[in-house]
Amino acid sequence: MKSISKWVFITLLAIFFSTSNAQDLAIGLSDLLARADSGSTALRASRAGISVSRETLENTRRSTLLPEVTFSASLGYLGNGYGWGRDSNYSFTVPMPHISTRFGVDVQQVIYAGGAARAARRQAELGVRLSELGYGHQRQELRLQLAGLYMDLYRAVRQLEVYDSNIALTRRLIGDIRARHEQGTALKNDLTRYELQLATLQMQRTRVENDLAIANSQIVTLAGLSQSTRVIPDSSFLAAKPDLFSNSNSLSSTLPVQMAEAKADLAGQQLKQSRSAMLPYLALVAQDQLNGPVTIDITPYNINYNYWFVGLSLNYNLSSLWKSNPAVRTARFNREQALLERQAVEEQTRQELGAAAIRLDEARRNLTIKQKSMQLAAQNYALVADRYTNELALLVDMIDAANQKLAAELDMVSARIEVVYRGYVIDYINGKL
What is the pLDDT at residue 176? Predict the structure, then answer.
């Protein structure tokens, strides 16, 4: 309200926010949003999820790119051999070396697995991508929520200023009417009506104070600030240029669409992995075996025998041709569903951007109207007040003019904030908040 000086505005803030344990924090909206990025518990948890996804990606890369190495060892007791003829009663016993040892190393490097390894790595990469996009979307939601609460806080402070101005004005009028009543030029009923109006204004002011306390509590919780903090807003956010909010980005750059595209890509990779089970498996194999004793002959040899092998290993599970079909069909349906969901998200985002642009234009038009209404209400109040002072207007006219002036001032505050908030909604949809 222009009639209230800057110092009165600061005094109102100091009176309202002064408590024994409270910590006043004068902070702009942009600084508050920056502080929430590091202080929000929800965002910290989301960042931890990104770290988990990245670790999963590294583990997947190692498991799919590095060879499989297996070492085996055994130590046992080997009993004597016993043989007998199948057509006679002939039998014999073969003494055996009783200590048996086996050592082996098996190395396999996958050369071709039907694209399963590549699909697994791509799925892990998309997992990181989705975690990052999820964090970005959650951050945008938090910022929009904080922006709305910050504007509610500022609106409440401004409303307190307007109410205090009108309460002071009403008290002055009550003093004038009381003096007139003592002089016999005003009725007791006139004094009562303005005292009732004063009580109504005080009750409305109390309601605004409660709204301010609630908004402050929600802000400090979302931003990760101390619960004893009292946020003191400023009007710097109102200086945002309205034309900055009117330039919408392409749909592909919005976070919901990017998330839908990543999910569709993930479904496609899952389909490729399902199909890979129906393809052969080719690997480079290297083996080394050290066994003892040698028992491949009737006469055992109490020696250690070492051999090694290098070559290719081809495996083809023919039963996968019919056993994997249900999994492939399910993966195909999931991919089709993901593609349809991406299309639905694009349509919804397009509608949201269109609606947000309309609401922004509506808020701008409303602001113009409220500015004119406030000017007219102020002029009308000044005119009625002058006529009332000269006893040319009734008290009811004075009350109506004061109520109109109060309503116009409060509407003006809300209209200015609404323009900026609608611009922030567009930035939120575009992922640029």
Answer: 80
